[in-house]
Design goal:
Layout: E1 15-19, H1 24-35, E2 39-44, H2 47-59, E3 66-69, H3 77-91, E4 96-99, H4 115-141, E5 146-151, H5 164-184, E6 190-196, H6 203-208, H7 224-231, E7 242-244
Parallel strand pairs: 1-2, 1-4, 2-3, 4-5, 5-6, 6-7
Bound molecules: NADPH dihydro-nicotinamide-adenine-dinucleotide phosphate.
Residues 20, 22-26, 44-46, 49, 71-73, 100-103, 124, 151, 153, 197, 199-200, 202-205 line the site of NADPH dihydro-nicotinamide-adenine-dinucleotide phosphate (NDP).
């Protein structure tokens, strides 16, 4: 596991947007960021799930979160502009984005892959993070220093049979992060990195590996050290990296 002990006030005063915040790793990240002082903007497609997380954060006494229901499969440019305007009016800046929402799509061959589903997976996993990031960059520039984290996967670094659009979207995500990191290096206080969560006990993992015992994988809460490290000021000098949440690195 990536080893990092986050100070309690790591993210105090920061506004952090988490996509896919209603479930799995995104929900755990929303908790972790709020516990360390952040005002978390909970974005996802299922309002009831976001409301549950909202209630949990409020009951824990963390900074009051915000909810943004948005389906990344159908969201268009005007939705992102509206999101940017809302964040600007409410908070006046944005200190970080965790691009976490994702869908798996079918585990099937390229030859047999449904082109419509291919586009859906690419839209949610790659195109939406691009559009959202592009629109929110001016707000990130208003923060003293900001962090953008994209979510990759082992199959986004080495292709594997039958992982189709999911794997290709994650290769694209790694590329998007590298290009953006290079563009922003030295001319902004925004850093851009990728996290590969590794096998984690969530609904997506169960869907991908139905025969596996879920208890053999860490819970989302256990992989949070890297998520905290890359979002907080201790990683200020880290840019353009793709790191493993369950890897051996430490900080
Ligand atoms: P889950 O399926 O548990 O959660 C995915 C989240 O993304 C859910 O909150 C879901 O919302 C949201 N989401 C899906 N589609 C959309 C959409 N169209 N619009 C808005 N939100 C959407 O997955 P994980 O927590 O396991 O995965 C999180 C990230 O980690 C993903 O990017 C995944 O690819 C990556 N990853 C996960 C691994 C693992 O082992 N779990 C391994 C490697 C990478 P809703 O709940 O409403 O459906």
């Amino acid at each position: 596991m990536f080893s990092y002990q986050a100070p309690q006030d790591l993210l105090a005063g920061r506004v952090i947007l988490v996509t896919g915040a209603g479930d799995g790793i995104g929900r755990a990240a929303a908790h972790a960021y709020a516990r360390h002082g952040a005002t978390v903007v909970l974005l996802g497609r299922t309002l009831e799930k976001l409301e549950l997380v909202y209630d949990e954060l409020e009951a824990a006494g963390y900074p009051q979160p915000a909810i943004v229901p948005l389906n990344l499969e159908t969201a268009a440019e005007h939705d992102y502009i509206e999101l940017a305007n809302q964040l600007q009016d409410t908070f006046g800046k944005l200190d970080g984005i965790l691009h976490n929402a994702g869908i798996l799509g079918p585990i099937t061959s390229i030859e047999g892959y449904d082109p419509i589903i291919w586009q859906q997976v690419m839209q949610v996993n790659l195109n939406a993070p691009f559009l959202m990031t592009q629109t929110l960059l001016p707000l990130l520039r208003l923060a003293p220093e900001a962090s953008i984290i994209f979510t990759s996967s082992g199959v986004g670094r080495r292709g594997r049979a039958h992982w189709g659009a999911y794997a290709v979207s994650k290769f694209g995500t790694e590329g998007l992060a590298q290009v953006l990191a290079d563009e922003l290096e030295n001319i902004s206080a925004i850093r851009v990195n990728c996290i590969n969560p590794g096998a984690t006990r969530t609904a997506m993992r169960v869907w991908a590996y139905p025969a596996e015992n879920p208890q053999n994988n860490p819970a989302p809460e256990e992989i949070m050290p890297l998520y905290l490290y890359l979002m907080g000021p201790d990683s200020k000098a880290v840019n353009g990296q793709s790191l493993d949440a369950q890897g051996s690195g430490s900080a």
